[in-house]
Recover the amino acids of this structure.
């Protein structure tokens, strides 16, 4: 057989270079589909995997960072507290490209406090919630995102109102908020590429069915339910900085969001004309569609210019983790001055 | 109003006590007496007399009783002393109680406006017309309350013989630059002094005389000292959540960092006020994992909240520095009282088999040094390291030699960068390589294909691969135990004063001052003692050796359960344990020499 | 396909081993083998043979290696045994490893469809055409995978002589009522049995014979047993957060409560799935304060998160029951492996001087009894009480006598209601009244003007008034210490088998089974032992006495640091400590007798 | 002097019977004003103080339960976790009337997770946040409700966006959400009376200036700032069940919310006509006024019919804490049945 040059991306890496260990999740688990799109998006964007840092909490979803980007460091931290670990790491090394994977239990139940404060700080990272409405890894109890009236296989019914992580994020001032569905790979891929281009917290709430515990009739987080009810807000495209946009889109039909690195998110109008830079509109749209029982996906809000936490703190350009004694230990004169002030 | 020296008859007329007594100011917090007390203390310090200042304050912001004690002592004793010779009673609420607890012969200074009768004839009573003097010194009503405190400075200075020039210098230092304030306050001091020189007839049996024992020394709180250590220790990520008595550690550090570690508007550090202690611990873990020197400071309740993260960092072998400025009890315990109550918690924090190094400074200089050392140690051992101060050290004023500039450079531990990775055959994150239990690590972002590994709890093999194999588990656990053993030689070594005596006093942290004083008292009674001051956990072998050489060991703990003694029990050979005797102090006040003395004598004389 | 008995030559032809061996099924989780294994185990149990079942499963939901071991033992030994005599290797991933670890003479049952060569000639290999047999038994492709497991049930039953009627009974029990499932699965069992009876030529050296040792007994997991205890213990508030291996405790409890404690649609309980363990602990504290019997169940990481609240409850003296079903390491340690790793944490949880009672059941009956007792104890002592199970006890199948209905009524402790308040001169929440360290309390909502008090940490006097007075503090702390001393007499007392031997084995919890077996083995070697099984902390005085009467005490711990031994060191007089020797097991597997035996012999034969 | 019969309320108690210990807060602290209105409201409503349970976390604000209702049990719990303690206690004894006092640090920083889940469960209690934008008790650091650009006395400026606890509560499905100001005693009193009548979580975010650390120029939580910027949404009145409403109000000018116990909240129109039963309108109003930098007070949302947690759990009418062995320990037959199932 004649050997063929492998297909590579802009930095000369093959798709394989973005893969991870073999998944140990249940066959058909929505989370594996998300993993697949993450691999693809990072490959597509030509991100150097060695610059990436992967974060997670605890849960089936939180295991997935082991299944993508083998060449990136990853940390499977403790339950619900990944945001703080990510914050520390990304402050320590501002060159890292952070991606965090969480679950609905990990974020909306135990992790609520840290999630709120991560978003409030606009820590530069992609934050994905693989949302299946249950605690997969502990065998299927309801999480705080389960809808009222949702039924477990055991017959248990959920009475408590769900936390809508997208509304919450928009309310808290997040700079990038989207929802997708692990069964909608095209949209998910585009959103992931956009999230990679975003500087700030990019919240992605991905409905990702748990085939073992929450994929039956009566579940509002099943493949069937999500497929039947998904209403995309717009058709999302991503155009890298080096590509030309003009030719392709008719004005009026497509909104374009220009990202910091020159790339563009294109949002082709579907039923409604939606402006993702209007926070109030986002809140209204989310609330109204929720009240109507609709499952809306898309990019609800984005503000590429919102200051991220690293900039706000005016951190040194060189990562703090690379600074050495010379940079970090003031001279004897400083100590003397301090001591002098105390005499 | 003249001064009645009701007590003269009952007082023995002898030489005044020179440079060996305490002054206590009873007041309410938020009343601005802190400046007055500082000035008094500094003036004495500037006279070359060893001095210490301890503030006993309530857990609220303003209006509750507060006592500030200044101890001047020519021998350099700086521990708390149970009672005071001069009491300035400014708080009507506590006046009667303050009077009751006066020792015979003491001097009471109080506000004659209060119209109370002082029913003690064995003390010297100076009833000072504070209101009148303050009004004269300060026509502005708004400022008068603050200035009132300066009146007692003047009275005290006058009756004890404090040099007015030193008072003025201290006052100028306190109000640096603010000419108006200096003038106003100095006026009040002078008014107090003038009143005293005119009205005090009684002979005051206490006197301060110049010495030369404070030259070159500085006065500092332990929290500030630790902050300086963090500054010079190269700390880059600070994640904290306010809590008394630790807040001023981070607040001082933020001040220093902003001043000395910003260049061209760019900071060589990041500070986050986290949403709680779980988050601050998580940030430290994340930052340590990513390769920076990270710290947090908290107190007991925060330590409890950090338990899961600290255990996680132990098993994943992530460096991080955790300061615990210990206080008394839970959140609604006594947050403004001191205790060495967390020692046990710190050493064993988290579920499962976890043990952590704990550094225990006994004075500001050690707080500075330990803060620096903790970052080296955390990175060398790849584990969370605690530095245990207490409220007494952290928030009170301590006299100390100025700190020395470090002679040793940073130790960043076993980190493989891209270049190093190129040279090694393989990189296995959790492998035993050097026999010291410490593996090698790489940092996220290292540009090398061999660098990456996936971090997770204890469920991994030597290559950081997920494993549930029994042998992999025991391998990791045994190596971790070995690492703690290595720590014995790396942590600060005990401070030992060996006299070949049968009795050894073993103490740690702020008990030092009281123990030193008690040893002199014991010696005066013919009892010589060795002294071992533990500086860190795990115990160095030297501590074992010294205990082996002793007949009886008195272990001094500022907690109920004798936690240091308990930790010794866990570490010592069985044959040594019988030698240990416990001296415990846990009422929330700093330890005093008397308690130590009694603890020893009770047994020795039994 | 016929059966090759490659190993016959090497096997000694002797009488088959009767009722004393283990069957291990290697498979993947989520493949439905659990029903098959349960049926096998139950069938043996119904034959009157003592049996135990241990599931070694991975920390994921489906597709990873799992081993289920059924031990049948005529002596009633139910501990894990390091290797098995019959191995059913259904998992191609682990097949080679499973083969490698076979002991000589073992029987290997595997799937002949796998086309692998088994390179061991010292074992009996039964290559079963699972695919073919399952297809015949189950035409429906969808169900075939589940049914395949029933084929090995048939094979195993046939070769070991398990009564088919018992297999059928067990199977009917398993699929109760579902006739179609019974039929289908029974068909598969029979196909397996038929295949074996036709094709197995080798003589199988293991055999099961009817006994009468299980009559009236039940099989139950410890978590379910504890749940039953909570049901009968009058638990009214359940606040939990799911975590392996504790979840099934609460899930079973919820099932029972819903079934037996709802009347006319009204529940005599409230269950909250909290948002995390801080919240579940807080809810228990709130409910206990308000006077109800409240519990939570968690595992190590949850315990760490509860540290602040548990300390708070200690100082405020609020009852609450906390179950810890212990597992290995932190969150990403080995959550599906067993360990007695939290003992130390539980007893000392939280910063400051805190100590808590811990009950340690060693089998399901005790789990039931301790669960009931814990509510009495918590209310009597007004303090958090832990019940420490482990994964082995909580999630594995244990044979036990049926539980006895409690003969003792509830002890609700020292509560003053309106009527009682009317009679007392004063109510002082934190006063010492009876000399046992336990104060009186009132419940919120008590309609009496004397009832109310304000609850806060440790900063209070005997009257629950805020106080920073040193003497008030030591009073409270000393009383709390006295209370823990009172607890020694109230907690479950040790289980002792005293033989006046020089050697004592001291163990706790699930180590019991292995220790019992090891003692018999030691006795067979001429070494008699006493046995003290600790049932709770703080230690009863009897434990001290027994240690005093022993020459050497082997303390068996399923953790790295020998935590029970450490706790003994803290409690025993120094003179006793030298007697203690540690036997530790910490690879995540349940303890086996061999490890205990070796631990003792190593020293005794040295 | 002729002795005069003391003035008493509907259950024969005097105002004094509702007082607590002497406050140890700073003179002029906003929290003391809130305490005063609590005393008054409970007196006014004729609530039996012995049926009340007081809860708090940690902070100056959290100390205040000691300063009112001496005859009620109270628990000063741990920092940020009062909601769980209150939940446990109120489930344990459904007859208790729960009131919790928290601070902005206690709720919006460390307490965020528990606050969210308390609200989501609609636990029946009054939940007051005495909001001063700082941590009073630890000497004045910013909390998560501090406004962007707010300045501390030390000169430190807050860069992070504030958490708006009212928006958040409305978003999370709260059944009663109001904001007031400790310097507006009349409104606060009316809201407190309404909150007492509400069955469910009544969230009251009360701006309560910290005179020691956050009452200077540059603070947006000072008395001056709040007084100058307060815009009441409506004029709030409370009419007990036994009083007649009709006579007093002109229709069209006043909205009336009927509470479960028959009492009524009256909302007299001011600048706008506001409907507090419209969740979406509440979100919009809150967001818009916030964006405009206005300090809006009033009853933003109320739904007297939303099921509370006790009802949802179908708890026994008699408090669980009063059930005894007879009620709680099933008979031997039950144990036998269970054992039988295991043979
Ligand atoms: C402190 C702590 N509590 C509980 C657990 C047990 N636990 C593991 S995963 C999990 C829930 C995971 O749910 P989710 O985040 O939705 O992830 P999923 O498995 O559904 O992807 C829980 C409760 C834990 N590991 N740590
Ligand atoms: C776990 C824990 N962390 C920190 C503290 C210290 N602490 C006491 S009060 C407080 C903040 C209080 O702020 P807030 O809730 O706004 O109340 P305020 O004093 O402003 O009324 C903090 C951080 C504590 N007691 N417990
Ligand atoms: S249990 Fe559910 S969430 Fe977990 S791996 Fe299986 S399908 Fe996915
Ligand atoms: S510090 Fe502030 S919040 Fe605390 S009592 Fe004083 S004024 Fe009130
Ligand atoms: Mg989930
Ligand atoms: Mg506040």
């Amino acid at each position: 057989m004649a050997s063929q040059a492998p297909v590579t991306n802009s930095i000369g890496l093959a798709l394989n270079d973005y893969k991870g260990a073999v998944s140990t999740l249940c066959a058909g688990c929505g989370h594996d589909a998300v993993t697949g799109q993450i691999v693809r998006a990072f490959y597509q964007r030509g991100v150097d995997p060695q610059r990436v840092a992967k974060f997670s909490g605890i849960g089936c979803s939180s295991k997935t960072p082991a299944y993508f980007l083998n060449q990136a460091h990853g940390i499977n931290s403790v339950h619900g507290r990944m945001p703080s670990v990510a914050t520390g790491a990304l402050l320590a090394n501002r060159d890292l490209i952070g991606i965090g994977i969480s679950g609905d239990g990990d974020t909306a139940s135990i992790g609520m406090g840290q999630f709120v404060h991560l978003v409030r700080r606009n820590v530069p990272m992609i934050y994905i919630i693989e949302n299946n409405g249950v605690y997969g890894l502990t065998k299927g109890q309801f999480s705080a995102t389960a809808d009222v009236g949702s039924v477990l296989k055991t017959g248990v019914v959920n009475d408590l109102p769900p936390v809508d992580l997208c509304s919450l994020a928009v309310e808290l001032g997040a700079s990038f908020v989207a929802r997708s569905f692990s069964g909608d790979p095209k949209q998910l891929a585009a959103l992931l590429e956009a999230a990679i281009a975003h500087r700030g917290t990019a919240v992605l709430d991905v409905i990702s069915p748990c085939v073992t515990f929450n994929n039956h009739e009566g579940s509002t987080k099943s493949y069937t339910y999500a497929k039947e009810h998904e209403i995309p807000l717009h058709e999302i495209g991503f155009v890298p900085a080096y590509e030309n946009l003009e030719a392709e889109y008719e004005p009026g039909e497509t909104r374009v969001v220009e990202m910091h690195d020159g790339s563009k998110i294109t949002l082709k109008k579907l039923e409604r004309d939606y402006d993702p830079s209007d926070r109030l509109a986002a809140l209204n749209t989310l609330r109204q569609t929720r009240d109507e029982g609709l499952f809306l996906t898309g990019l609800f809000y984005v503000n590429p210019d919102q200051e991220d936490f690293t900039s706000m703190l005016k951190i040194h350009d060189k990562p703090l983790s690379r600074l050495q004694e010379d940079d970090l230990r003031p001279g004897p004169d400083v100590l003397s001055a301090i001591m002098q002030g105390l005499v | 109003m003249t001064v009645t020296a009701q007590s003269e008859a009952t007082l023995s007329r002898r030489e005044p006590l020179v440079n060996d007594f305490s002054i206590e100011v009873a007041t309410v917090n938020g009343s601005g007496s802190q400046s007055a007390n500082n000035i008094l203390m500094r003036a004495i310090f500037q006279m070359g007399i060893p001095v210490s200042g301890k503030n006993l304050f309530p857990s609220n912001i303003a209006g509750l009783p507060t006592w500030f004690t200044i101890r001047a002592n020519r021998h350099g004793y700086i521990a708390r002393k149970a009672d005071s010779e001069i009491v300035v009673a400014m708080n009507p609420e506590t006046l009667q109680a303050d009077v009751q607890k006066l020792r015979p012969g003491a001097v009471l200074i109080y506000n004659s406006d209060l119209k109370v009768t002082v029913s003690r004839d064995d003390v010297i009573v100076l009833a000072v017309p504070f209101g009148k003097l303050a009004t004269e010194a300060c026509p502005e009503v708004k400022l008068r309350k603050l200035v009132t405190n300066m009146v007692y400075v003047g009275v005290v200075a006058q009756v004890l013989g404090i040099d007015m020039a030193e008072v003025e210098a201290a006052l100028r230092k306190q109000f640096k630059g603010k000419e108006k304030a200096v003038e106003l306050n100095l006026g009040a001091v002078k008014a107090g002094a003038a009143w005293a020189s005119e009205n005090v007839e009684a002979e005051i049996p206490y006197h301060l005389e110049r010495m030369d024992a404070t030259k070159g020394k500085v006065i500092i709180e332990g929290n500030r000292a630790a902050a300086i250590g963090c500054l010079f220790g190269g700390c880059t990520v600070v994640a904290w959540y306010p809590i008394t008595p630790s807040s001023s550690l981070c607040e001082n550090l933020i001040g220093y960092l902003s001043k000395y570690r910003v260049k061209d508007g760019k900071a060589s550090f990041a500070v986050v006020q986290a949403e709680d202690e779980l988050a601050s611990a998580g940030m430290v873990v994340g930052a340590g994992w990513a390769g920076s020197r990270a710290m947090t400071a908290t107190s007991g309740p925060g330590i409890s909240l950090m338990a899961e993260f600290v255990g996680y960092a132990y098993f994943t072998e992530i460096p991080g520095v955790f300061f615990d400025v210990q206080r008394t009890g839970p959140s609604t315990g006594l947050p403004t009282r001191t205790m060495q109550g967390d020692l046990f918690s710190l050493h064993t924090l988290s579920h499962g088999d976890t043990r952590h190094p704990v550094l225990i400074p006994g004075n500001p200089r050690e707080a500075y040094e330990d803060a620096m050392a903790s970052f080296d140690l955390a990175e060398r051992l790849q584990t969370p390291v605690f530095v245990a101060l207490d409220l007494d050290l952290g928030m009170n004023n301590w006299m100390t030699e100025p700190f020395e500039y470090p002679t040793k450079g940073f130790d960043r531990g076993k980190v493989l960068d891209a270049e190093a990775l190129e040279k090694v055959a393989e990189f296995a994150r959790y492998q035993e390589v050097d026999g010291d239990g410490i593996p090698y690590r790489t940092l996220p972002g290292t540009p090398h294909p061999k660098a990456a590994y996936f971090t997770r709890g204890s469920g991994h093999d030597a290559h950081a691969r997920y494993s549930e194999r029994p042998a992999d588990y025991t391998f990791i656990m045994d190596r971790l135990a070995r690492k703690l053993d290595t720590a014995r030689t790396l942590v600060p070594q005990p401070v030992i004063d060996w006299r070949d005596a049968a009795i050894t006093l073993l103490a740690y942290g702020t008990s030092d001052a009281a123990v030193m004083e008690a040893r002199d008292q014991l010696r005066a009674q013919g009892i010589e003692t060795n002294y071992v001051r533990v500086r860190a956990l795990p115990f160095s072998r030297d501590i074992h050796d010294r205990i082996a050489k002793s007949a009886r060991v008195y272990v001094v703990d500022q907690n109920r359960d004798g936690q240091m003694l308990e930790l010794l029990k866990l570490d010592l050979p069985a044959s040594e344990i019988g030698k240990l005797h416990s001296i415990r102090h846990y009422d929330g006040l700093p330890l005093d020499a008397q308690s130590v003395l009694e603890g020893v004598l009770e047994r020795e004389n039994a």
Remarks:
- The two ends of chain B are 54 Å apart (CA to CA).
- Residues 77 and 297 of chain B are 29 Å apart (CA to CA).
- Chain B has a mean pLDDT of 95.
- The pocket of iron/sulfur cluster (ligand 3) is lined by residues A 25-26, 29, 31, 60, 132, 136-137, 210-213; C 61 (CB under 6 Å).
